[in-house]
Amino acid sequence: MSVQEQHTVIDKMVDAIIYIVHDPEDLYKIHSSRHVKPMARLHYLANSRFGELFESPAPPEPSQESTERSLDAALIVSAIYRGDHVELQALLDRCDCSGLWDENLGLVPVDLAYKQGTREVIRTLVEHGCVTRYPGKPLSNSGIIKGLAVAARRGNKEVLETWVTLLSERGGCLSSDLHEAMLGALKIGKFEMAAVLDKNIDWTESDMKLIWFECFHRAVENGMLDVLKWLLSREGSSLAGHARQWHKTPLFIAMKEYPVEKRLAVVGLLLNHGVDPDGGGRKLTYSTS
Predict the structure, then answer these.
(1) What DSSP state is assigned to residue 85?
(2) 23, 86, 203, 216: least CB-packed within 10 angstroms?
């Protein structure tokens, strides 16, 4: 390998370290337990007045296979970041990429594509069977991440539309992913992304009403005026006429539980859009006292 080629590879590794989902130090860790040799190390641990003898395996020796797989994953991340779908195609064609989507290899290449992939990069990934769900950061509470929710929260309309369109063409059920993406987008005020998702959700009118109802209540609870305006202009005041939990209507929540500095604006918005002051049947005596 020439000096120039070495520098090119180093640059790509830098791309990977900067844009990986997981911690940089995880990038070249050993990922396969079958490479651990059965060497033992004795540890004497004090426990109260007594000690117990334990055996634990020695640190695993480096594995060429795991290093190569991590290198492939890093190069894929770099190709996605640079928008080089030709290189990405070549990498995916030559390596076993099945584990790169959902195994904990220190990074999840597809996560970066959900955030900022170009149309051709996304198309290449979809053609190679990329996942719509993948593990979050180890030792965190993020659990399984849904890629469409990541794209929706990111707020890039073109990227989100591309993902939804190409994944829909590939087939498979995206209802749960679209639902979570919708809620995630509206939760942070990305209602333009919600409009993109709405065009692609093939649900019944009653199912969609339930989504708007849940989004509306979340917006009320979080004081998101822009989202409330968008939903009310779209669905009307009927959204606010039903209680969600403990029989609390949105107007009740706004009047009783909101911080003072936000209360007037939210209550005024609800009333101006025809929300029933009685809360759709629930008297607000307690909340207005």
Answers:
(1) H
(2) 86
